[in-house]
Amino acid sequence: MEEGTDNSIFIGTKPFMNYVTGVVVQFTTKGAKEVLVKARGKFISRAVDVVELAVKRFLKNKIQIKNITIDSEEFTNKEGKQVHVSTIEIILESI
Amino acid sequence: MEEGTDNSIFIGTKPFMNYVTGVVVQFTTKGAKEVLVKARGKFISRAVDVVELAVKRFLKNKIQIKNITIDSEEFTNKEGKQVHVSTIEIILESI
Out of B49, B53, B72, whose CB is closest to A52? Predict the structure, then answer.
């Protein structure tokens, strides 16, 4: 799946249920076959929570996890220091 | 891999580098072929950080990620309320 498509949901600081609803809407209203849930750093735990709630509760028996990958990005922060941040990408697919 | 073997590293509140060192020791000193890194809740992000640092830096070209699974557990907390917590299990293998 390409980055930046409408099927990507990037987990951040919005209210938790916004993201769960986002996943549900992609699969139901928008008829997506796959949805990519992405997160960085401390939001990785939250991404897993969102996916678990969607798969086990809201879209139970309708979607499943297709693939999970983790990676890390390197960037220079405001203080000019080199920083690593971990990332996760979870691909969900309709069953 | 069975739970509770010596090859499991459960990520919690200890200093971050303890866990990275734990992974390295399993593969080097103890000669493990596989190591399981596990975490629950907010420690999931930390588990990913530990794995990324081990794979990309400390044991670069020596280990790789074999499999990643996420799940959730349900339990009753001290206040008698039913609570869900997400979990992650990352299996690392020597190359």
Answer: B72
